[in-house]
Design a protein that fits this description.
This protein is an alpha/beta fold. Helices cover 47% and strands 16% of the residues. It is globular, with a radius of gyration of 19 Å.
């Protein structure tokens, strides 16, 4: 009987994919199973998403991709984030991937939680003065609290990048979804100026950028205008309002316009989640290949 992992990979192959990104959901045993299936199925790996394998040394109650934060002011947690990121680099080497995609961290701020903004948006208040003021307060609070977390993320990158470079792996700095996450728009440029020559590249996430655009924080295409020359890869999914990870070409993003701006050779990873259907993803892959 086929394992769930093999069935998943066979389904991806049937969509017409030759490359996959190995994500952050897999414990070591499942990762080994994936690796054992790649060759027989004729699949290659484009990229690995940090953390891979997912940490199994202690519970944190967080999303697996942020299990440990590279931006943590707690030095023990920051060091754990660095250690597990290096393990993801090792995974990339094993599977022949070129990139490890990272979430660089979070500015911890609980006074104005994101769900206040998103609830107001869903209630149709995005054009109101109340929404604008709430957004202003949220972003101001982030600005006030960012410095120690950005410094910690910078320190972590300074430790990860030499290790990755020694293994010929590039680190992809991903656009984030939540406005308090690192990097925001300006921090993308800050980190790239510091570390591009050391193996840090920009990884654009279409749904994340679109959600921030919908909230009035930064226009989606500003990322392309400012960081296109650093762009090495993309997570491609659609977004309706602030609901992301929809199948490409099914919601708000003008992919024809967006993809026309892509430099040659950019790694493109479809990152659609349910409720995206098999048929929607298959159609998206066909359109992306024809473009």
């Amino acid at each position: 009987m086929r394992s769930d992992v093999r069935a998943m990979l066979e389904e991806l192959k049937s969509i017409g994919l030759d490359y996959v990104e190995i994500g952050y959901h897999f414990k070591p045993d499942k990762l080994e199973e994936i690796i054992s299936c790649l060759g027989p199925l004729g699949l290659k790996v484009s990229s690995v998403h940090n953390f891979c394998p997912c940490p199994d040394d202690s519970p944190t109650g967080r999303h697996l991709s942020n299990f440990y934060r590279m931006s943590a002011v707690d030095e023990s947690e920051r060091q754990s984030a660095v250690m597990w990121t290096k393990r993801s680099v090792d995974t990339a080497v094993r599977v022949g991937a070129k990139f490890v995609v990272i979430h660089a961290g979070t500015v911890e701020m609980g006074e104005i939680p994101y769900n206040v903004l998103s609830r107001m948006f869903e209630e149709g208040k995005a054009a109101t003065g109340e929404f604008a003021e709430t957004r202003r307060q949220y972003l101001q609070l982030r600005k006030e609290k960012a410095a120690p977390h950005v410094a910690a993320a910078q320190k972590s990158l300074g430790e990860v990048l030499p290790y990755a470079r020694s293994k010929n792996i590039l680190i992809g700095l991903e656009t984030r979804f939540y406005p308090n996450e690192i990097p925001n728009f300006e921090e993308v440029g800050y980190f790239l100026q510091l570390f591009f020559s050391k193996g840090l590249v920009y990884w654009h996430d279409t749904g994340h950028a679109q959600a921030q655009s919908a909230l009035g924080i930064i226009p989606h295409e500003a990322y392309f205008k400012h960081y296109k020359n650093y762009l090495a890869g993309m997570h491609i999914h659609d977004c309706k309002g602030v609901e992301d990870h929809l199948a490409p070409f099914t919601a708000d993003i003008d992919f024809e316009r967006l993809l026309a701006q892509l430099p040659e050779g950019v790694c493109r990873v479809v990152e659609a989640h349910p409720p995206a259907t098999f048929e929607q993803v298959q159609a998206a892959v066909r359109r992306l290949r024809s473009g």
